[in-house]
């Protein structure tokens, strides 16, 4: 059956990576129809997210999203909270010749699964003075509304939200174990020592679920300890699940280990929808120069192919990208090369012929 992909090209330098990446995916001649919801500047009647755009996203099987600096923000909020895409999957895999700061990067191949809807990202902030007297600081030992002028943000962790993302992460560890022919491993990390009610709850729910996956090795680490281990010995990790904020931060850190944001793809999965975008922003400082590294966008495309049922094609695309890095001839400036975005995508396309 024909799959439908909605394409939103994004802002600043993002379209320079998206346009050739979509063209490359189209050249694979798969049974995929590509639609372009009129969001952002393409919006109609002055709206950046008209109903038509929402309907086109709903009618698609997935959305391929270029980073936005604002024009497609409403569409992005819809893709995330409207479509309840609760698991943000951010792989960090080292391709030989990528611009890593590490001496021994070989074999880094891990995936951060970031809870995508809760935690401090609920968007619930306000004045401390508005909080009730009963809200007592355990550490300062005073009601928080007496601390003085200031603000608060709500960090909310639910059982259902945690359970679904942790199960997703366990399932991913299983799939990777089969594919990579090695035992699966899941690490759960949070600040459960300092925040026992929220991060501790995340860990508790994960630990409760672990016996359902006896074939996957399970461990829990305090977030700061995890970060130190990630930096010193990243190959020890396979799949790592964590609350939203840590996932946002640590996945960029993991990207830095394997060559930077230009290589960091992501996929956001819900029960019946997913969207795919690079983990980086719109790179406004290099917009118009045709030098944005499209690797993250292409790898996100490979994840999307897998989601759509084109598992072999997704793997072949990832391998083609790895081969371009292995040769080390056609690399973009962020990787120490002189190739343009178009030349890099062309080199990947040539490997697929
Ligand atoms: P956001 O807040 O949306 O994440 P940002 O401006 O903080 O956006 P990015 O847009 O990711 O962050 O850019 C951070 C830096 O990394 C910029 O100097 C940018 O040029 C560079 N950068 C990001 N992505 C790429 C890429 N794909 N290729 C080359 N450089 C990139």
Describe the structure.
There is one protein chain. The protein has helices at residues 14-26, 51-59, 73-82, 159-180, 199-209, 223-232, 244-258, 295-307, 311-327, 341-352; strands at residues 3-8, 32-35, 62-65, 87-93, 109-115, 125-127, 151-153, 184-190, 216-222, 239-242, 265-269, 274-278. It is of the alpha/beta class and 353 residues long. A 10-stranded mixed beta sheet has the order 2-1-3-12-11-4-5-10-8-9, sandwiched between helices. A two-stranded antiparallel sheet has the order 6-7. Helix 8 runs antiparallel to helix 9 (311-327) and helix 9 (311-327) crosses helix 10. The longest helix is centred in the middle third of the chain and has 22 residues, at 159-180. The model has no long low-confidence stretch (mean pLDDT 96). Bound molecules: adenosine-5'-triphosphate.
